[in-house]
Design brief:
The chain is built from 16 helices and 14 strands. By secondary structure, it is of the alpha/beta class. An 8-stranded mixed beta sheet has the order 4-11-10-9-8-5-6-7, with helices on both faces. It starts with a helix and ends in a 6-residue tail after the last helix. It holds the Pfam family GntR.
């Protein structure tokens, strides 16, 4: 069978129509090594095989191999074969020459204004694991072996359609299982046909804003709010109107000058502050949406992880046929890299947005969804959430104790409801929370500055601290590193 290396060398030989054969083959191999096409320690074909596939004599190949071996480009291992050397003699020289030769050919990049704005306000962390990164569950505690067993069972007799795109907005089995779960756990009113499976909240917001907003339409967002929502909406040309959040959640204005096309809220556990929206505010938002013809987009963020008190029902289920687009995700209850979320659409929007989703994103992974449906239906999903709720409650208490022990009760934000996977550590106004977070991140402690979640010019100062993925006994050492960053004078304003 012809190897890829032989194909590569044949192309390099064809680029050198002139010259003696052994010199052309030598140049073909040497240049392939130097430009990385043949990476260090990659195996070269045996001389006999290479000669046969290139239709040259074996003596020619042996001569070239001997020269490359003598010059240090390749190494020979008895009984194993011939390999590219770990380092080659003139790799640095070649790299420098190549860079100087190609530098003038680099095309200047011109981004759109929206693209430049996105990069200017990007906040995604280059590291997604560690103390005290907010929004990350303990992925090691998930019963991966159990889900894998279910997946293997489902995969034994798969249906042909499970290997294609989904024409129904996701697996029908998963839609049914989610409907049954959400009806009991979150008081959501829906049918399976109203559920659309997405690749997370970002995709859901992108779809909704593209399909329901024209450029320049207004969307209300919470102040502060998750930066990811802002970025997606602004990329789609939506005008943002931040609405202040207090202890009762988003506080809608009495006079509405520009009716909002979309209203984005996290009523069960406001992100990032953590408050719960009052019933009076929920009813006001529903009335505004009905009066203006707009839609409420409810992100049921961290709703599963409430550590005391009664469960808070979803805004979507308060009234029949509510003008609410309900979104959820498995990122916190299972693991973020799963990239599975869902949207419960009002009846009037369901088929339209499912069709648009199929046109824009071409969803698939139906076998994964079928396995997840069985995982939910067999009770494993709710059992896992109950177990993690107890574990996270202990870790939350440990972090609360550390904050009050070292910084006092005043350092705990009054917004911290007894729910979610992070706490807000308050800072005084003279602290620069962005500089503190940057300094802590450099020391391996991953916190996020609260001020980055505000659009206005009067942000609160603080740090978002996740506790879900940290063992209790590991918290104090990391907290003391953070404490040193907070008290360090040269990072204060």
């Amino acid at each position: 069978m012809r190897s890829l290396v032989c194909d590569l060398l044949q192309l390099r030989l064809d680029e050198q129509p002139e010259g003696k054969l052994h010199k052309r083959l030598y140049n073909a191999i040497r240049l392939s090594i130097l430009d990385g096409s043949l990476p260090p320690q990659s195996r070269l074909p045996p001389s006999r095989d290479l000669a046969t596939q290139l239709r040259h004599s074996r003596n020619t190949v042996l001569t070239v191999y001997e020269q490359l071996l003598a010059e240090g480009y390749i190494v020979s291992r008895s009984g194993s074969g011939t390999f590219v050397a770990r380092t080659v003699p003139d790799s640095l020289l070649f790299t420098a020459e190549t860079a100087s030769e190609t530098r003038h050919d680099v095309r200047a990049i011109s981004l759109s204004h929206r693209g430049e704005a996105l990069l200017a306000h990007s906040s995604a962390s280059p590291r997604q694991w560690g103390a005290f990164l907010p929004g990350v569950p303990d992925v090691g505690e998930f019963p991966h072996a159990l889900l894998r067993k279910i997946h293997n069972r489902v995969s034994r007799k798969p249906q042909a359609m499970q290997f294609s795109y989904s024409p129904f907005g996701g697996s029908c089995d998963l839609q049914q299982a989610l409907m049954e779960y959400l009806r009991v756990a979150r008081s959501v009113r829906c049918t399976p046909e109203q559920i659309l499976i997405t690749e997370g909240i970002h995709q859901a917001i992108d779809l909704v804003s593209r399909m329901l907003c024209n450029p320049g339409d207004t969307a209300w967002i919470e102040e502060p709010a998750y930066w990811g929502i802002r970025n997606v909406l602004q990329m789609n040309g939506v005008a943002l109107q931040p609405i202040d959040v207090d202890l009762s959640g988003m506080d809608p204005p009495e006079e509405i000058h520009t009716p909002p096309r979309l209203i984005f809220v996290t009523p069960s556990h406001q992100y990032p502050l953590g408050c719960v929206m009052s019933m009076e505010r929920r009813r006001r938002l529903l009335a505004i949406a009905r009066q203006t013809g707009g839609w409420i987009v409810e992100d049921d963020y961290d709703s599963e992880f409430r550590f005391s008190g009664q469960p808070i029902p979803a805004l979507q289920g308060l009234i029949d046929d509510a003008p609410v687009i309900y979104t959820g995700t498995f990122s916190k209850t299972m693991w973020p890299g799963l990239r599975l979320g869902y949207v419960v659409l009002p009846q009037a929007l369901a088929q339209t947005l499912k069709t648009a989703h199929a046109e824009l994103y071409r969803s698939g992974r139906l076998l994964d969804q079928a396995a997840l449906a069985q995982f939910i239906r067999e009770g494993h999903y709710t059992a896992h959430i109950r177990r993690m709720r107890l574990l996270y409650a202990r870790r939350r208490q440990r972090l609360t104790t550390l904050i009050t022990q070292y910084l006092g009760k005043a350092a705990l934000s009054e917004f911290n409801d007894n729910a979610g996977l992070h706490l807000v550590l308050k800072l005084e106004d003279h602290h620069d929370d962005i500089a503190i977070a940057r300094n802590a991140n450099e020391k391996g402690v991953l916190v996020r500055p609260l001020s980055r979640y505000y659009m206005g010019d009067k942000p609160q100062r603080g740090l978002l601290m996740g506790f879900a993925a940290m063992k209790e006994e590991e918290m104090e050492a990391a907290f003391k590193v953070l404490l040193g960053c907070i008290t360090k004078k040269d990072i204060n304003k």
